[in-house]
Each structure stands twice: as C-alpha cells, then as structure tokens.
Design goal:
Elements lengths: L5 E4 L9 H16 L3 E4 L11 H14 L22 H14 L2 E4 L3 H13 L15 H10 L4 E4 L6 E6 L3 E6 L7 E3 L7 H11 L4 E5 L6 H11 L5 E5 L19 H6 L4 H9 L14 H7 L14 H15 L2 H11 L3 H11 L9 H5 L11 H5 L4 H15 L7 H14 L4 H13 L7 H8 L1 H17 L6 H15 L5
Parallel strand pairs: 1-2, 8-9
Antiparallel strand pairs: 3-4, 4-7, 5-6
Helix pairs in contact: 1-10, 6-7, 16-17, 16-20, 17-19
The chain binds one RNA strand of 77 nucleotides through α4, β6, α6 and α11.
RNA sequence: GUCCCGUUCGUCUAGUCAGGUCAGGACACCGGGUUUUCAUCCCGGCAACAGGGGUUCGAAUCCCCUACGGGACGCCA
C-alpha cells in the first residue's frame, strides 16, 4: 500500500515574501500534485521576536498572487491543525519534556555571553564553533537549584559522540556526516518556544508529511532531524534538498544583491504565471524541453529526479524575455488590457496617486509625465542630476545609510518614512532640504515629481530598495561611489550612530 | 578553520542512471533580412563537458585525486 504523498512549505513570517519561498513552494506543489497528494502550508513563527502577522499575511498573499494553492494551512483548516507553530506550543513542549525524561535532551543554563565567549575562543583557536557541553553533566540537585532560583535555561539535544549519520537524499543519494560534526542543538529556547529543528520534526511527523522538499541549506542539519525522529521512535520522511537560487556572483540569492521580494516582481509588472514558469525552469526542464509551461503542465509530468543540482542564477534578462513572450503569445490583447488595469492602471491606484499630483497638474497631459516613474521599472538617472550640489562621496553615504535604515521601517507609510528622513538629516547634520534632491532623483530621475515620502510609500519597499541600489551602482560605475574600504568604515560609523543593521 | 553539497557555452539547461551522433536548445551578445523608426518576427554567427589520473576498443557519461564555487557551523529559519 503506497503511502499518501504529503509535502509542505514552511515559511517563517519574518520579512518580505521571498522568491526562494515561492521556488520551494512550486516544486513541493508540483510533486504533491503529480502524486495525487497534498501540500500543506505551515507557518514557522517560533521566533517570537521577529515574527509578525503582517508578514504572515503578506506571504499568503504573495503565494496566492502567484497561483500557488495549498490544501491545508492557517487559513484552510484540515485534520492536522493548527498550522501555525506558535499555536502548537503545548505539543512541542510536551515532546521536549519527553526527550528530557528519556535522557535524550538536557537543560542548559549557559548565558549567551558565555556562549559567545566560548565561540570566540574556539574560532581564535581555529576550532569549529560548537557548544562545549558545559551543562551536560549537571547533577539533579544542581539543576533543581538553578530552576528553583528561576535561572533562565534552554533545552539542548544530546548527540552521539561516535559514528556517523547516514541518510538518503532523494536527489544526491547517500549522505554521511560524522556525529562529531553535530552540535548539541538547542531544542527549546529560554522563552519556552521550540527551535526550528524540534518544531519541524514534530510537526512534519504529526502532519504526516511524507516528503520533505527544502533548500540545500538544510543538508547539514538533517542529521539533527534524523536523530530526533529516532529518539522519538518515528519514521523519518524522505528528504530531497533542492539547489539554492543564486545571485549573479553565485552566492545565495539575497536582497542586498538582487530583487528577492515576490512583490517586487508584481509591482514591477511581471505576470504571476511567468514567475512560476521562470522559477520552474531554474534547475528543472520538462522532458520535452519546452520552455513555456503552466503550473498544471509542470505538475502533470513532474519528476523530481530531473532536478539539476547546480545552483541556478536568477537571471532578470531571461525573466523579462519570458514575460514578453507571454504578453504577445499567451495572452490576447483583451487579456493584456485587463491585466494592465489589474496591475496599476486602475481607479484605486489613480486615487492613491492623484492627491499628490493634483497641485502640479494644469491639464491631463501633465499627469503621465509627472507620475511616469511610478509605473517604470527603471527610471533613468544621470550622475549630474543625482548628485546635485552634494559631494559624490556624501551622496553615496546618504544613499547607503538610507538603504539600511529603510530596512527597519515596520509600517511602510508616509509618516514613518518622513521620520526616517528627519532623523537621517539630523544625524548627518544636514538640513532635510539639502539631502532630499538626491532622493528625488534616485526615485524618479527627475527634480519635478511628487512629494518624496508619498511617492516612496506608493512605490513600496521593494521598488525603493532597487532604486537606491541603482543610484549607488551609478556612483560606483562612475568611480565616485563607496570603495570597499569606505563601505566598511561607513558600516562601523552607521552602527555607532544608528544601531545594528537588520537585513 | 571544520564538515557537507555541487561543477556542460557569459546565463538557464539537454545529454549522465542503461559509456559509442561534428555535445543539442533557449537567453544574452554579434551580423543579416522583413519593417517609414523602434520593437516583434525570420535567418546566420560566437560560445561549454573545471583540471589530472584511471577503467574501457571507446568517457561529458563509471571510479579516484586536485582545483574552484556554494552551503552549514545562532536561544534565525
């Protein structure tokens, strides 16, 4: 009797929906459909500090926009819920309790300061950073004493000292990793929430996931997961690790180097079915090698063994070409009109824009030139206009700081952006008026345009980030940007003045 | 640094499992044609089996080593 195929995607709601998530979702879905199984969407929100419900709904929206459908999820109750890990806390804690009782896990009272110190020393001694098992052999009395005192603690897993973990990756075959390489991973944090490793094993088991299809980045922690399955007496699912999408420099796709937000592509005017089609040709070809295909066509013949394992570079040029082909081959003219309206040429969007444009209009024909940059993926900018009266180095610095600061914006609204610029000007000891032309240019390529903060809020974080980066790129290519050294210096300075970066 | 994974045109890839066609297609690029411009479209061109050893009559394909690239090494996922 063949086991029912159940796959899952497990995004963590900690930021902008990422094309990598869509990439994994696509193949999980294709695999599930091909095998008449189901795909589950599970929200991995065990990081209480970073998870937000805005991000969660953004992820759901972005996947829906792409046409990715799940059979069970937080919005689609099924037999195996809840589908949000934060709502499964009791389950996770009881399993952790069981592991402790069995002697497969133990409490650890080490402070993060101590851990950092140990890690530092290990790196200095050229050792592999790893938990030194300081708390492994605490006596019952000691543990009780510390707990009674209310000392914060985590629960760590116990890992064999000898031998190796051997598991089969569906795509790569046998993988062997020495248990010595595996750290005594934290299973439960001091706030009582499980870590990914614990929660994902427990939930995959309880949700009867048959195939774990995830990114290559997880290979090295798979032994931890296998061990947990063993300790809990559960059968492990099959594992298939897909290659990671890459930047043009071959590093793992990151928003610092590439637009990685799903909404970037939506807002820049790409069709969702093109995104899926394009993602589908990253690491995969249909047996007949056709290049234009729908999700259904992909699913119909999908064979995971056909995945190629080299990390594919996400190439905007080919994506653009593909989108062009859909526009002129797959859609009728009526369709295109309809989709164009859906995109930005609609009343809602115009109503959004008009208040900021109205004072600057004399007749209708002013509207398009004035707002053109809101509809343009890449407005043209020139070095001279960009810099204006600023010193080029200063301009580069401001753009970079702004890019970093913008990452901290929680609610992408005019007012918050305004505050950010006020602080920026103050901290850099400039008048707001002095620094704004730079950003007008970076956003619109013009000096006559809409109010900056409103324009930025309409553009959204993804398009804004790319524009800032493009301006920075222009400075660099003209040899007046930030050098590598300059960037390092700036980073330090930034940290002092603005605090840590997040990205 | 340690471990793991990977490597076919600049890019996405076919071919690898079952060794035997000048290594095929697509993007990009270059050239030509159609088009009042541009784009589309059509035709053509450039361009790769990372390197070295084996096994074999024969290796992109099987084995080993090296190099290079990537990933992991968090109370992130």
């Amino acid at each position: 009797m063949k086991q029912l195929v159940r796959t899952r995607i497990a995004p963590s709601p900690t930021g902008n929906p990422h094309v990598g998530t869509a990439y994994m979702a696509l193949f999980n879905l294709a695999f599930a459909r091909r095998n008449k199984g189901s795909m589950i969407l599970r929200i991995e929100d065990t990081d209480r500090a970073r998870s937000t419900s805005e991000s969660e709904s953004a992820i759901l929206d972005s996947l829906r926009w792409l046409g990715i459908e799940w059979d069970e999820g937080p919005d689609k109750p099924g037999k195996f819920g809840p589908y949000r890990q934060s709502e499964r806390l009791e389950i996770h804690q009881s399993i952790v309790g069981r592991l402790v009782e069995q002697g497969d896990a133990y409490p650890c009272f080490c402070t993060s300061e101590r851990l950092n110190q140990v890690r530092k020393e290990q790196i200095a001694n050229k050792e592999t950073p790893r938990y030194d098992r300081h708390c492994l052999n605490l006596s019952k009395e000691e543990i009780e004493k510390k707990m009674d005192r209310g000392d914060p603690y985590v629960i760590r897993m116990k890992v064999p000292q000898e031998g190796e973990c051997i598991f089969t990756d569906e795509l790569r075959g046998e993988v062997r990793i020495d248990w010595k390489q595996i750290d005594h991973q934290v299973l439960q944090k001091s706030d009582g929430y499980p870590t990914y490793h614990l929660a994902n094993v427990v939930d995959d088991h309880m949700m009867e996931i048959s195939h774990v299809i995830r990114g290559e980045e997880w290979i090295s922690s798979t032994p931890k997961h296998i061990l947990l399955y063993q300790q809990l007496g559960w059968d492990a699912p099959s594992f298939a690790h897909l290659p990671l999408l890459r930047n043009p420099d071959k590093s793992k796709l990151s928003k610092r180097k590439n637009p990685t937000g799903i909404f970037y592509y939506r807002d820049a005017g790409y069709l969702p079915e093109v995104m899926l089609n394009y993602l589908g040709m990253m690491g995969y070809t249909l047996p007949d090698q056709r290049e234009i295909f729908s999700l259904d066509e992909l699913s119909e013949s999908f064979d995971i063994k056909r995945m190629s394992l080299g990390g594919p570079i996400f190439d905007l040029a080919k994506l653009k070409w593909l989108n062009g082909r859909y526009l002129r081959e797959k859609l009728s003219e009526d369709d295109v009109v309809e989709r164009l309206i859906q995109w930005k040429l609609n009343t809602t969007k115009f109503k959004n824009i008009l208040p900021h444009a109205l004072q600057r209009l004399e007749n209708f024909s002013d509207f398009i030139p004035l707002t053109e940059f809101l509809f343009n993926e890449h407005p043209e900018i020139t070095l001279e206009n960009l810099i204006g009266k600023l010193d080029p180095g200063q301009a580069a610095k401001l753009l970079k700081i702004c890019e970093w600061e913008l990452e901290k914006v929680k609610n992408w609204h005019r007012d918050e952006i305004f505050c950010l610029f006020q602080d920026l000007a103050k901290t850099e000891e400039k008048k707001l008026k002095e620094i704004l032309p730079l950003f007008f240019q970076a956003m619109s390529g013009k000096s006559i345009s809409l109010p900056l903060f409103d324009a930025m809020s309409i553009l959204g974080p993804d398009l804004v980030r790319v524009r800032l980066r493009k301006a920075l790129g222009l400075l660099n290519s003209e040899g007046v940007g930030l050098s590598k050294k300059g960037l390092k210096v700036l980073e330090k300075e930034y940290q002092q003045k603005y605090g840590n970066r997040i990205d």
